[in-house]
Amino acid sequence: MERIRIYMTGVGGQGTLTATTLLARTALDQGLDVVSGEIHGMAQRGGVVESTVLLGGWKSPKISHGEADIVLGFEPLETLRGLPYLTKGGSVISNTEPLPPVGVSCGRESYPDMDLITDKVRGCSAKCWFLPCRTLGVEAGSVQAGNIVLLGALCASGLVPFGPDALEAAIRKYLKPSLVDMNLKAVALGVAKLAG
Amino acid sequence: MAHPIIAGTSGERHLLLGNEAIVRGALEAGINVVTCYPGTPSSEVPDTFHRIKDGSYYFEYSVNEKVAMEVAAGAALGGAMTMVTMKHVGVNVAADPLLTMTYTGLPGGLVLLSADDPGCHSSQNEQDNRYYARMAGMPCFEPASAQEAKDMAREALLLSRKTQQPVLLRTTTRVNHLRGPVTFDERPAPAKIVEFERNPRRFVPVPAVARVRHGELLKNLESIRDVAENSPWNTVRGEGRIGIVASGIARSYLADVLAEQGWQDKVSVLELGMSYPLPTRLLEDFLRNVTKVIVVEELEPLLEKDIRTMVQDLGLGLQVYGKCEALTVQGEYSTTSIQMALAEHLGAEAVSPVCFEGETDLPVRPPNLCAGCSHRAVYYSVRKTYGDDAFYSSDIGCYTLGILPPLKAADFLFCMGSSVSAGSGFSRSSGKDVVAFIGDSTFFHSGITGLVNAVFNKHDLLLVVLDNGTTAMTGHQLNPGVDPKVLGDTCVHLDIESIVRGCGVTEVAKVKPFNLKSTMKTFGEMKAKSGVRVIIAEEPCILYARRALKLQRPQAAYVAEQGPETDAVLNEFACPAFYRDDDGVQVDESLCSGCMVCMQISKNFKARKRSA
C-alpha cells in the first residue's frame, strides 16, 4: 500500500496523545503496518504537543519538515506552526477554535488572524478542511471529544486507507464503555461536517 | 481484566509504547526484581511495572539512582534477575557502584536501562551513555523499534543471567516514546533465584581482589564479543560498495531514506543493534568489501572512532566518514540529515526537502506552572520579599518552570539536589543572599546530604522545600514524602520537617503557600536572619490533589473590579487562568482551581460558587 505520514499537533490537555494512540490502533486493527511517535514531558503544562502516525511500512517514528502527507491540527495556531512539516501536495485538517497562549491571554502578544491561517493552509495544501472541533465536541458531550471529531473527519476524507467504521470499531474496543457513545457521536459529527 | 502486558500469551500482537515493550521483555525473561528512579524519558517503564504488578516480581521506587542501582545489585547478588531503570543523567548518580559491580559480576543478572535524551527534550544535557558501556565494561543493546525494545530487554536479561555481567539497555527518547506493534513470546515462570556462594575474594573488591577481577571482566567481555558477532541484531544487508554502519534509532531513519530514495542497491548496510563489545570479525568482513564507509550514529562518534582504529590496525585503504555538517554530535538525527549526508557520497543531489516557510514571530507556548500550583504562590511571596536582591538556586522539578517572567525564580541549576550545595558555594564566594528551592522528591533524592554539609560548614542560605507531596514533574510517582493514605501499607511516610531538624537546622518554619499573608511574614522573618534556614511550603500538587486525593474546591475567582491593581495581579502573579478581553482582565473559571491567592493580592478579585 501507499505509505502515509501523519503529523499531529495540538496543546497539552486537549487529548491529542489519546487521539494519536487511537488512530494507530485503528490502523493496526486494519492490518496496516504502523509506527507512532510522541514527544511529551512538559505536555501537561500548556506546551505544544506533537505526535506522529506513519502507515504502510515506515520505520521512523519521527517526521521531518516537508515529509507529512497529512497535517492534523488540533488547534489553529499549532496548525500554522506545523505547516512546514507538510509535503508538497499534502493535505490539512484543522480545528478552527483557538486556545490562546499565555502571552495572548495577557495581552502581550496577538493571536494570528484566522483568515491568515486558513489562507496560508490553502496556499500550501492540495486539500484542506476546517472544523469547529470544540463546538462539535461539546455537541457530542464534552470538549474532550473535539479530538475525535477531527479523527472522524480524517477517516471520512479518503486520505487514509480506512473509513469511519474502522475508527468506530476501535472506539468500541479501546475506550472506556462510558465514553463510547459520546465519541461515536463525535465521529459522526466530524464525518457530517466533512460531507457538508 | 489483567493488562495484556502481564497476561498476554505467545503470538499475541499489541500496540505498545517502547517503554511498555521493555516491561514485556523483562517479563518474558522471568524478571524477579525491578528498582528505579523515575525520569523522562524512562518513567513509563517503572510506572508500568508498578501499575501491573501481580506478585511475580518485587518493584520499588527507590530514593535516588545510586540507591536504586545498589538495591538492584544487591538483589542480583542475592540471586534475582534484576532490572534497574533511570534517565541518562541518573546513571551519573549511579556510576560509583556501577563501575565496580562489573568487576565482581552479579550471579542473578542485572540490566541497567539508561534512557538517553538527544535533543534535550526534557533534560539538562544530552550526554551519550554508550560511553558507560565502554567505561564500565558492559555489553550494550540499542533497540530502534517497539518489537526490538521487548526482544532486546529479554535478551539482555538472559545474557546477564548467563554471563553474570551487568548489561546496558540503552534507549533514546524517540525509542522510549514510539509506539509500534509487538508480537509476544511466552512468559515463563519467574527466574530461579541463584543461591549466593560466599566468596569475599570475588565480591569484596579490596585492591588485591579488584586487580584480579578487572582481568576477569576483560576476559568475560571477550567471550561476550562472540555473542555480538552472531547476534541477530547485527546484520548486513545489500551488496553495494559504499558501506554504511548504523546504530540506534538512526537505523530506522536510514532505512526510510534508502527506501524512499531507492538507494538500497548502491550500499551495504551493517546495522549494530548490539553495539558493544564491537563484533570485530563481522566488521572486518564488512570493511573488506566496501570502498568507503559512512558511520551513522547519534551523539558521540564512538563507533566512528572504533572503526577508524580498526581500519588503521588492518591497514585498509579505506575512507571513514562520520560526523559532518549534516550529522553533528548535537541533537537528534532525522531522515533529512541522513539523506543530506548520504547524497554527497552517492552522487545524488543534496535535495533539501520541499519546505513551506514557517511563519515567524508566532506566539509561543512555554510550559508553565499550572493554574492553582502552589509553587507560583511561593515564588510570588519570595519575589515580593527579596526582588532581585537574592540569587535563586533552583533544582530539578516542575518548579524549575519558575524560571519564566514574571516570577524569575531560577538563576542557576546543575542537577538533582544541586540547589542546596551550589547555593552554599555561591553565597560563600559572592556574599549575596541565596534562596534555594527544592521539591520533596528531589530533597529525598539528594538534597539531604547538601543540607547536612550546609549545616556542618556553616553556610548561609535560605532553603525552601516545595513540598507538594508527590513527584509531580515525572508523573506523580511515590516518594517518601507522599501522603500515607496513598502509600498504603507497602511504604512508610517520612516527615520532612523531622529530617531537616535531624540534619541540625534550627531555623525551620512551615508555611501554607495559599495563606499569602503568613507566608510573606515568614519569608520576611527568615530574610532577617542568617545561617542555614529552611522553610517548608506544604500544599499538594493541584493535579495530584484532583486525581489521587480527590480534592476539589467549590469556589472560583472572578474579577469584580478592573483597574491598575487588577492589571498588576495579571502581570506579577500571571496565573494561566487569567486572560484579557475587551472588558479587561478575566478569570477562566474552567481553569481556576480555587486557590484564591489572587484575592489576597487584590480586593478586585473575589470568589463565587462555580457556575456549573
Q: How many domain units of chain B? A: 4
- Which term fits the overall shape of chain B? globular
Mean pLDDT of chain A: 94
* Category from helices, strands and their pairing of chain B: alpha/beta
CATH domain class name of chain A:
Alpha Beta
The chain pair forming the largest interface, with residue counts per chain, is: A-B, 54 and 54 residues
Radius of gyration of chain A: 16 Å
Layout of secondary structure:
The complex is a heterodimer of chains A (196) and B (612).
Chain A: E1 4-11, H1 16-29, E2 34-39, E3 48-55, E4 68-73, H2 76-82, E5 86-95, H3 102-105, H4 114-124, E6 127-131, H5 133-140, H6 146-156, H7 164-174, H8 177-195
Parallel strand pairs in A: 1-4, 4-5, 5-6
Antiparallel strand pairs in A: 1-3, 2-3
Helix pairs in contact in A: 1-7, 2-4, 5-6, 5-8, 6-7, 6-8, 7-8
Chain B: H1 4-7, E1 13-17, H2 18-29, E2 33-36, H3 44-52, E3 58-61, H4 65-77, E4 82-87, H5 88-104, E5 110-116, H6 130-137, E6 140-141, H7 146-163, E7 167-172, H8 173-176, E8 178-183, H9 200-203, H10 207-229, E9 234-237, E10 242-247, H11 250-261, E11 267-272, E12 274-276, H12 280-288, E13 292-296, H13 302-314, E14 319-321, H14 335-345, H15 374-386, E15 390-393, H16 418-430, E16 433-439, H17 440-456, E17 461-467, H18 484-487, H19 496-502, E18 507-511, H20 516-527, E19 532-538, H21 542-547, E20 555-559, H22 564-572, E21 578-581, E22 584-587, H23 597-601, E23 605-609
Parallel strand pairs in B: 2-3, 2-4, 4-5, 5-7, 6-7, 10-11, 10-13, 13-14, 15-16, 16-17, 17-19, 18-19
Antiparallel strand pairs in B: 1-8, 6-12, 9-11, 20-23, 21-22
What descriptors fit this protein?
heterodimer; A: 196 residues; alpha/beta; Pyruvate-ferredoxin Oxidoreductase, domain 3; 6 strands; 43% helix; 22% strand; B: 612 residues; Rossmann fold; seven-stranded mixed β-sheet; five-stranded mixed β-sheet; 23 helices; 19% strand
